[in-house]
Write the structure tokens for this entry.
Amino acid sequence: MIHLYTWGTPNGRKISIMLEEVSLPYRVVPVDITKGEQFAVDFLSINPNNKIPVIVDDENGQSFFESGAILLYLAEKSGKLLPDDVAEKWKVMQWLMWQMAGQGPMLGQAHHFLHFNPGKSEYAEERYLLEAKRLYSVLDKQLEQNRHVAVDELSIADIGIWPWVSRYQFQKIDLHDYPNVLEWYLRLAQRPAFQAGYKVPDASQEIVFP
Ligand SMILES: N[C@@H](CCC(=O)N[C@@H](CS)C(=O)NCC(=O)O)C(=O)O
């Protein structure tokens, strides 16, 4: 059994979607980050970086934080969503790193300045909106010739990227400006695993559609 410590955010949903896709049994432990539960002593013992998501795997008693590392761990554990072929595998790694080092952190800043704190900094709003648009353009171009982001089949790169796209409203992004991203977003949203994973830990949450 995997214990998933999470909240209804893009980084949290990466892992619930992954667990659903690979059909590994898991138990959800909600960590309400709006109430500061990520700073509780018990939680800090499994993630000193005080952020969700975290998993604890009963099979070996180990805990892991950082969503990219967790996706890789679950891909190896299940033997799914990370190709065996070396060239293909490294394409997935490349886009997973793009997500972890660029798309996630930059769109997170866009949420902060454009959605949660509008009017605080004109400079930051402009900077992160421009960067968000640049990232969407990169993704749109990649999806022009490819059905999935990194390789032909669905991979952990798609699972890392999709939940951040699902917050396009917070980023003031019109998905119609990125038709290949829109098509990919809508197609993946039809997958039962994406629908189930999106609703973790709050079953009342619905995927948003443009
Ligand atoms: N790089 C980390 C980022 C995790 C992260 O930023 N988690 C947010 C929610 S999406 C969080 O727990 N925030 C609480 C806080 O910053 O105190 C990952 O990918 O796991």
